[in-house]
Amino acid sequence: MTPSNERADLVFEPSGRQVRVPVGVTLFDAASWNGIAIDSTCGGHGTCKKCKVRVLEGDAPVTSLDTRAFHTEDLREGWRLACRVEARGDLRVDVPPLTTRPKAATVGVGRKVILRPAVQKRFVELSEPTLKDQRADLERLLDAMDDLELRTDLFALRAIGPALRAADYKVTAVVVDDVLVAVEPGDTSERLFGIAYDLGTTTVVATILDLATGTPLAVQSMLNRQQQSGADVISRISTIMLDPTALGRLTTHAHETLDELTAAVCEEAGVEPREVYEIAVAGNATMTHIALGIDPEPLGVAPFVLTTRAFPELLASDLGVKVHPRARAVVFPAFGAYVGGDITAGLLAAGMDRDQRTRLFIDIGTNCEIVLSSDAGLLVTAAPAGPAFEGASIRCGMRAAKGAIEAVKMTPEDLALQVIGEAEPKGLCGSGLVDAVAELVSLGFIEASGRFVTEEAARDLAPELAYRLTTVGEERVFVLHWLREPGDVERSIYLSQRDVRELQFAKAAIATGWTLLLEDAGVAVEDVKQVLLAGSFGSYLSPASAVRLGLVPELPVLRVVSAGNVAGEGAKMALLSVRERAGAVALLEEVNYVELSDRPDFNDRFVDRLSFPV
Amino acid sequence: MTPSNERADLVFEPSGRQVRVPVGVTLFDAASWNGIAIDSTCGGHGTCKKCKVRVLEGDAPVTSLDTRAFHTEDLREGWRLACRVEARGDLRVDVPPLTTRPKAATVGVGRKVILRPAVQKRFVELSEPTLKDQRADLERLLDAMDDLELRTDLFALRAIGPALRAADYKVTAVVVDDVLVAVEPGDTSERLFGIAYDLGTTTVVATILDLATGTPLAVQSMLNRQQQSGADVISRISTIMLDPTALGRLTTHAHETLDELTAAVCEEAGVEPREVYEIAVAGNATMTHIALGIDPEPLGVAPFVLTTRAFPELLASDLGVKVHPRARAVVFPAFGAYVGGDITAGLLAAGMDRDQRTRLFIDIGTNCEIVLSSDAGLLVTAAPAGPAFEGASIRCGMRAAKGAIEAVKMTPEDLALQVIGEAEPKGLCGSGLVDAVAELVSLGFIEASGRFVTEEAARDLAPELAYRLTTVGEERVFVLHWLREPGDVERSIYLSQRDVRELQFAKAAIATGWTLLLEDAGVAVEDVKQVLLAGSFGSYLSPASAVRLGLVPELPVLRVVSAGNVAGEGAKMALLSVRERAGAVALLEEVNYVELSDRPDFNDRFVDRLSFPV
Fold first, then answer.
1. A296, part of any domain
2. How many CB atoms lie within 10 A of CB A259?
3. Do B322 and B212 have their domain in common?
4. Whose CA is closest to B406, among B389, B392, B393?
5. pLDDT digits (tens, 9 = 90+) for B264-304
6. Any chain B CB within 8 A of the CB of A231?
7. Domain assignment of residue A469, given as a range
8. Interface ipTM
9. Which chain B positions have a beta carbon within 8 Å of A157's beta carbon?
10. B308: chain A residues, CB-CB within 8 Å
11. Parallel, antiparallel, or unpaired: how do β-strands A203-210 and A193-199 relate?
């Protein structure tokens, strides 16, 4: 598949709002993605014929549906159904005012999303059958919703007769996308919920949403139960490669994790699990493969191939989630083995494809995903940063848990630590590591090459901190915190020369990634208008330290923004809007994946990027 | 839904074959239904662009797909894709000769069906992935089959990676309709099977077919395990209405019956159950509702409504059939509560919608379904014949099993019986009952009114048989067979006056049905060119006796034909051809259902039809 970078410029009147979209996107989608409301009940399937707009300038061929929706005179004046007009070139379009104001919610990185969940409920009051009107139950119901063209699930077929007869032919139809999944007695149209999951290698987060209002009702997180089979994706893939029974076990652990969170958020929100009709899951490729029972082995060995980029129609039950038995599951598609659905979700939340600014999106972790948006389109790559940020290869390293030093400040006179849970420090987590090295570089205790200066030089630079620069065995260290009496180096929390090297390698890998993307796109560093730090680690990282170390391009620090859990935000957006969801799939076609592992210039750039900026 | 009776006349050159089809049918379907082969690999989905034909006369608008498949010059000359041309008026079309001869099989009532099963296997040899070609496994496979546009089942996603890597990227893709359901290592393309079921209230029959050749490999039948919950549909519905746990139990019994037959036919044919990728089920509305776990109660009480006429996409596992885990199930759609999928299948097998002759289709049973095809389109009704033909309300009645008198011949001198299994007679089954009454009417022993003549009159008519006309208790009887010594009437097999009355009522109900259909269509009895007797009972019935009694219209006996198990044949056709299957759904739209129970003229006609023709 060749990604297309062709764009069309659209102007929506009367607001005059300008929008740039990939060629082929419909006017309806383009408007919806940009928060411009166009009337519709079918959500762009061409059945309700309500999304009438007038094309003022540009070419919009008449479709067969248009001829059914409009008189010849109207067609001549440019009236079209917005869901049928594909932007093939620039267009200026007039959007009639709405009679009712659509609901919208703010999610993602300040994205305003018009609510149009795939889940819809319709309360209908039907006439009872007679010998003169022997329409089948299903026909009777579908006739009352003839703006939709629906497929029917067997579950709904089993439910429809009893529901009709239990509630005097007054029932609520539950539709997910274009499938009638359930029929409930009486009016339950206010009760529809969805759950968004950020399925991380380490931590899994679930958010339950009221799909009628867009409101998050409860959030819960827990450690992924697969932890017992390895801390990172490579060790989990290894476990599966070595033991033929392991895939089934890890799949079960993923299901248990998701389902435990499901029960917890439903309970907290006061929602019955059967009122949850759709879930959305954002996770990296290994996590989604395993959760669906698909062998992840090819993700772990060259040439690193996915089983599939986009997933077919799935059920929540395929992921072990016990909600409505026919609830659907949206699993975010992946760009490549190391740029997974979590990144697709993150790009969606960040609106990386909807923005004319040149931006960098960096999700820092063991595997670091980097995306550049520019006039050259979207370029994406994965850089192997190694486990330094997880604290795994660091002498006094630990996860970002209670007792971890998460931030460090130094002046020549003093050193201040910020510890998670305001406890006695137990170790150094990723953000603390980055801070510590950045501060020591600023102080001059670490040279551009990454080496600690001599103790003599340290005494000249900052006499009150110099005593902390000492040795453990053969290795030079800088002590951050004395656990016992000062001087008991063995039982202190310190940063070692090797730790600095680990961080250097990690940051060089990342910096090589964005350097090559910038080169490929022909973009200069100073043209980057925003750097989004994503992922659970990125969100805790100090933008100033990231700039100081060269982890991100050397830019004014205000251009570097922590974006938070963008994967989870993307999953919420998918639940709230079928348009946004379609945008995630469209992203696959727009992105060019840059594989670093076979680039001849990789090593050169890597060596260039090892040292710290001075 | 208003059935359309509009037809278009098509002429296919060079054969000059004339075909009459409902307006809206595509040229591809029209040709395929009538055994005229047009090239295609995608089966009419508009993706392979091979079904090129030239429209010589009539109107066939150019579609967007045509513009991609042909040059302007070709379009001007009338070239079109046959799968995109909907017959809106009369057309004359030239079909290019095929380069390879399509396979065909004869099924149904002498129907020649071009093999185009929904199940397809494709053996593909793929290139291995490299760092330069990191396409996902699924993409790689689908790229090799780009004449198809497929959805993918999760099962296939789980299978694809292991299959590719186990067999050096040489695999067989299994496609059912437009879904990739499995990927198998190596070349298994010759092994694809389907099972057709006739799901009767009493008896269930399964036939396994080789879908590559159209050959039936094994047939097995057994009693429906639901028998223990009642002999007929009404008693089964009553069981379910009285006991909230009964639906689950009866559904399980249906599943057990279908699955036991499945194992038996697979075993006999030497086929692994996992090599069966599709099943087709023809059954009456009550049987299909229960088998799918849908409450049949509304079928049993006025106003007699179905839950649905046509069924959605189903899996064999929804019917408890253990074949390939993602095998599909086609369940025949029903016209009404008492004209079920068995009749739809029968009409398909009989080609009732493809024939310009005026024909009657009569499926005789407790509930008798009658269909009239004529210039007025297809009219269908259900007549409540009661249990006489099942032997249930007949003094010496029994099922058509070993020991049942199934045929009777009489001359004034002699009486001959034909007994199932060449055993000592134990009772009288439906066809024997009809024969016995017909022969006695011919002999003059039964009057047109249905009354036995006096013993004196009998002696005049046939002295050698007159002694058989005697009494049991108060009731007059005709003895067919003495079990002990002649004269021991109590222990003989006889036909009673009340039995004759039962048969009269049954035949009057049926005859009223076809009388009203003929009247509604404006067709005279003598214009009926063929009467098809369908169903397991109809097949055993003597056409001569049926005419003699007025069970069918008074026509030359050669026009009355036993059609055999047409429901099972229809199910086979659905497996062998997606075109025929689509025809079954199209039938729903073509048929006008005539409800007898609220007709004011029903009783008049019924009384007219009580007496026997003289």
1. yes
2. 18
3. yes
4. B389
5. 999 999 999 999 999 999 999 999 999 999 999 999 998 99
6. no
7. 388-502
8. 0.84
9. 292, 294, 307-308, 311-312
10. 136-139, 152, 157
11. antiparallel
